[in-house]
Amino acid sequence: MIKIQNITATFGACKGVGNLSLDAAACERRYPVFGIRYSVTGYRPLVTAVYRLLLTGYWILVTGYWLPVAGYCLEANPSAGKFYARGDAKKPFFALTFDDGPGRITMDLLKLLDKYGVKASFFMLGSSVKTYPERALAVAKAGHLVCNHTYSHKNYFKLDKFPDKEKILDSEIVKAQTEIEKACGVRPVFLRMPNGYNGGWVSAVAAKNGYALVNWTYGSDWNKITPPPGQAAEAASSTKPAAPPPASNQEFGAGGGTAGGRSGGGVTEEKMTAEYLGNLKPGAILLLHDGGGKVKEKNLRIVEKLLIEARNKGLKAVRLDELPGIRQVTSGR
Asked: In terms of domains, do 88 and 57 share one?
């Protein structure tokens, strides 16, 4: 057979890019093929391997060079399976992250982010992408980072006792990934578990699928808003488990908990905004929602105030794959 030596083929991101791109020409410009060494010892295993690669449409790395196979650019993700909850607190960057979308405010949110010239990361539900594929595509086209939030937002605190929980999560990740690739033409490399669940078994499933796990340093927009007199309250759209953020980025099983700084009970929008502003710091990963629930307009107001305050503090909102402290382990920079 013709045996291609030193083959590595693992999930991850193109160097410097947070998603796998469907643009083969762009990948080829980034990683030209200079040469491939091979030896002739038979043919059947090679035919099988190439056939599978053509079906999946990935690229493989051969002896240090990129070999075009069928339209993707593929590189090992050294952070696959690891858990991150904050960036580098010594650098003037933070990350805005949005869950459960695309949803009702996604398009308005894109306009707002464009107004301030910043990029964010969107953890999309596969079911939401299937409902609003054009909104998901708009997020990707605007240059924001598309991430995986599973397909249907199952409660893994309850599923933790199920013997087939790994199989359930694997299916949820793949189903969401399929919808995202279909709608956006990108393959995410960041996964956020529903409700910030961080059971130790999750890391193996994430690693198998080439994902780094990311939670948050602060978020509370799911809490019920106490309205001013005469106004209706904004109902909470989801429930996140209360837990203090870990002291540093950690792998699952390494003694860390969930990054889930939150306030409890009903609060006024003014107080909620103040809490977000108080947690706007270098390295912060802030969580809000652009999907899930009927009313999210308050999040647009909170985001705008965060961006104004960030400008005043000399901080810049960036995508997770550009956030120092996470960037180096996911993009090789």
From this structure: no
Q: Residue 161 class from Cβ within 10 Å (0-12 exposed, 13-18 middle, 19+ buried)?
A: exposed
| pTM of this structure | 0.72
**Structural domain for 290, as ranges:** 82-331
Q: How far apart are CA 184 and CA 21, in angstroms?
A: 10
Cα–Cα–Cα angle for 285, 287, 293, rounded to 5 degrees: 170
Q: Residue 3, class by beta-carbon neighbours within 10 Å (0-12 exposed, 13-18 middle, 19+ buried)?
A: middle
Beta strand ranges found along the chain (DSSP E) = 2-4, 7-8, 20-21, 38-40, 60-62, 65-67, 82-84, 93-101, 121-124, 145-148, 186-187, 190-191, 212-214, 218-219, 250-251, 285-289, 316-317
- Residue 122 in tokens: 């969107």
* Number of residues that make up the chain: 333
Q: How do residues 49-71 score in pLDDT, each as one tens digit?
A: 444 445 444 434 443 444 333 33
178 lies in some domain: yes
- Give, rounded to a whole angstrom, the gap between the first and last alpha carbons of the chain: 37
User: Residue 76 domain-assigned?
Assistant: no
CATH no. for residue 263?
3.20.20.370
Query: Is there a domain that residue 217 lies in?
Result: yes
Answer yes or no: is 192 within a domain. Answer: yes
Q: Answer yes or no: is pLDDT of 155 > 50.
A: yes
Query: Mean pLDDT over all residues of the chain?
Result: 76
Q: What are phi and psi of 191, to 5 degrees?
A: -125, 135
Asked whether residue 39 falls in the same domain as residue 86, the answer is no
pLDDT tens by residue, 84-118: 999 999 999 999 999 999 999 999 999 999 999 99
204 vs 294: CA distance, rounded Å: 35
